[in-house]
Write a structure and sequence with these properties.
GO molecular function: cellulase activity
Structural class: mainly alpha
Pfam family, one: Glyco_hydro_9
Number of helices: 20
Shape: globular
Protein name: Endoglucanase
Radius of gyration: 43 Å
InterPro entries: 6-hairpin_glycosidase_sf, 6hp_glycosidase-like_sf, Glyco_hydro_9, Glyco_hydro_9_Asp/Glu_AS, Glyco_hydro_9_His_AS
Catalytic activity: Endohydrolysis of (1->4)-beta-D-glucosidic linkages in cellulose, lichenin and cereal beta-D-glucans
Length: about 625
């Protein structure tokens, strides 16, 4: 038989071979039946039947340990369940809105501090920054310096207006900047907590930038300095000036004279103190700080070389900001320059007994201990007592520093109600100016010194001080400061806050030109604004944070715009208010900054005192 081979050849089927195969197959079947008649062992069965169903093992080998399968399964299951629950809880915590615990509201001192600083924004002169945040103020007096042909310095744009007028008095203004800088140096952490550190530094820089314009700040020696811009004296007859006219600063169109002086020790030394203290505030801005230090050194040298009172040659200064002496500014300015430079010659000057004697450190008098824009002795003594408490420089400074320390203790005693140095109103306001008008500016300065000295003693681990035989704790000083500031903020017989915008009852007729005239696109000329001055209506613009002059000695107050002895604010007064408020504000556990003021002071190695004179029989 043949067939077709698919690979191309004939396919032959051999029938004989086929028969043979059938026989073999039958033989194989017989063999298989014979083999199956015998029992097979497990190995043989696995060969024939393949892998069968295996029994589950009771244990799990984890390599390092063998555990029960049941325990292993439960453990893994529990871990997976715990992870799932933890993830679910985390998801819920992340997605469900949280109810944050409300922060404690700021204390009254912090609230008042925020407002008191805004007053300086309202007093700015020149081209205002975008962030000034006083909507009714604008650029003003952009020709200051240029409008006076006799002025050597032509760019006097900027700075601050002194009070309710538009005069720029450098004497009280420099004191205001020194006070603000001092408060920042001591209480920068409190300013930071109140959210006002950058703001107050911006206020200080606005002032110091202007001061650098008022003399040749790049020179080592000068022969004159600008004392003021504008005029307020109206005794010579009716003519347009900053007191005769009642105008918004933005609308001023009359000539503003520049007053310079070549013999003004008090003014120059106070300006030196302002620049020196600000150099410590801006010590992280090295270039600007050095510029301030250089200016301070130049001014102080001028103050020592060209002796005289600045108000002696100026009718305006003598009327409005008369200086009684320049010796206190020598002590005050010398102390600040020592802290700013570390140069011991300034400390030697500030602790010279003759200088202190002329400044009145060794005699009392009715105004002893009253710290103000005119007399800085009380502040200078506190400032130098700080040096003794924390660095104790020893000889040759110890004797005078000890005297200043003792005098500071006496001043603090005089503030307490147990003593009769100063009277108090029935409402509790201390009469540091003995019943004369405008008392609050002196009260806030005393409150600042009292709180600061209390903090100095606490930082020096000194629980108090002696007034004669009686010992008083530092808390008494803080209590004095709190009662005085609380009076100003409304705890007084009239229930009136003397800080505009604080509380619900405050003066509405503040003696202030810009605040009393509406910003209505109408330009009122010199006399045109008189109707707003004489109006009985409240000011259309609220000058937030302004501390008015204050009540009289009977706790009385007349909210009348024309009576500046009650209703006019000043930058010197507000600077003292800011300093007192920041010292009292916030957490009482936040203390003074002990070290920043000493940044430029080199390590002190006291000189041993000279040996005693040989004994002579």
């Amino acid at each position: 038989m043949y067939g077709r081979d698919p690979w191309g050849g004939p396919l032959e089927i051999n029938t004989a071979d086929s028969a043979t195969d059938d026989d073999g197959s039958r033989n194989l079947q017989d063999f298989d039946r014979a083999a199956l008649s015998r029992p097979l062992d497990e190995t043989q069965q696995s060969w024939l039947l393949g892998p069968g169903e295996q029994k589950k093992k009771k244990y799990v080998d984890l390599g390092c340990i063998i555990v029960s399968r049941k325990i292993f399964v439960w453990t893994v299951g529990l871990l997976l369940a715990a992870g799932f629950i933890a993830g679910l809880v985390t998801l819920i915590v992340k997605t469900v809105p949280r109810h944050h615990r409300a922060h404690a509201p700021p204390d009254n001192y912090t609230v008042a501090l925020n407002k008191a600083l805004m007053f300086f924004n309202a007093q700015r002169s020149g081209k205002l920054p975008r962030h000034n945040n006083v909507t009714w103020r604008g650029n003003s007096c952009l020709n200051d310096g240029k409008s006076d042909s006799s002025s050597v310095i032509k760019d006097l744009v900027g700075g601050y207006y002194d009070a309710g007028d538009a005069i720029k008095f450098n004497f009280p203004k420099s004191f205001a900047m020194t006070m603000l800088s001092w408060s920042v140096i001591e209480y920068s952490a409190k300013y930071e907590a109140a959210g006002e550190l950058n703001h107050v530094k911006d206020i200080i820089k606005w002032g110091t930038d202007y001061f650098l314009k008022t003399f040749n700040a790049s020179a080592d020696t000068i022969d004159r300095v600008v004392a003021q811009v504008g005029v307020g004296d109206t005794s010579g007859g009716p003519f347009a000036n900053d007191h005769y006219c009642w105008m918004r600063p933005e609308d001023i169109d009359y000539t503003r004279p520049v007053t310079s002086c070549s013999s003004c020790s008090d003014l120059a030394a106070e300006m030196a103190a302002a620049l020196a203290s600000a150099s410590i505030v801006f010590k992280d801005n090295k270039a600007y700080s050095q510029k301030l230090v250089h200016g301070a050194k130049t001014l102080f040298k001028f103050s020592r070389d060209q002796r005289g009172r600045y108000s002696a040659g100026s009718a305006d200064a003598a009327i409005f900001y008369n200086s009684s002496s320049y010796w206190d500014e020598f002590v005050w300015g010398g102390a600040w320059l020592y802290y700013a430079t570390g140069n011991s010659s300034y400390l030697q000057l500030a602790t010279t007994p003759g200088l202190a004697k002329h400044a009145g450190a060794f005699w009392g008098g009715p105004d002893y201990g009253v710290f103000s824009w005119d007399n800085k002795l009380a502040g200078a003594q506190v400032l130098l007592t700080r040096l003794r408490l924390f660095l104790s420089p020893g000889y040759p400074y110890e004797e005078m520093l000890k005297t200043f320390h003792n005098q500071t203790s006496l001043v603090m005693c005089s503030y307490l109600p147990y003593f009769t140095s100063f009277n108090r109103t029935k409402g509790g306001l201390i009469q540091l100016n003995h019943g004369r008008p405008q008392p609050l500016q002196y009260v806030v300065n005393a409150a600042f010194l009292a709180t600061l000295y209390s903090d100095y003693l606490d930082a020096a681990d000194t629980p108090g001080w002696y007034c004669g035989p009686n010992f008083y704790s530092t808390s008494v000083l803080r209590q004095f400061a709190e009662t005085q500031i609380d009076y100003i903020l409304g705890k007084n017989p009239r229930k009136m806050s003397y800080v505009v915008g604080f509380g619900n009852h405050y003066p509405k007729h503040v003696h202030h030109r810009a605040a009393s005239i509406p910003k209505n696109k109408i330009k009122y000329n010199c006399k045109g604004g008189w109707k707003w001055r004489d109006s009985s209506k409240p000011n259309p613009n609220t000058i937030v944070g302004a501390m008015v002059a204050g009540p009289d000695r009977r706790d009385g107050f007349r909210d009348v715009r024309s009576n500046y002895n009650y209703t006019e604010p000043t930058i010197a007064g507000n600077a003292g208010l800011v300093a007192a408020l920041v010292a009292l504000s916030g957490d009482k556990t936040t203390k003074i900054d002990k070290n920043t003021i000493f940044s430029a002071v080199p390590p002190m190695f006291p000189t041993p005192p000279p040996p005693p004179a040989p004994w002579k029989p």
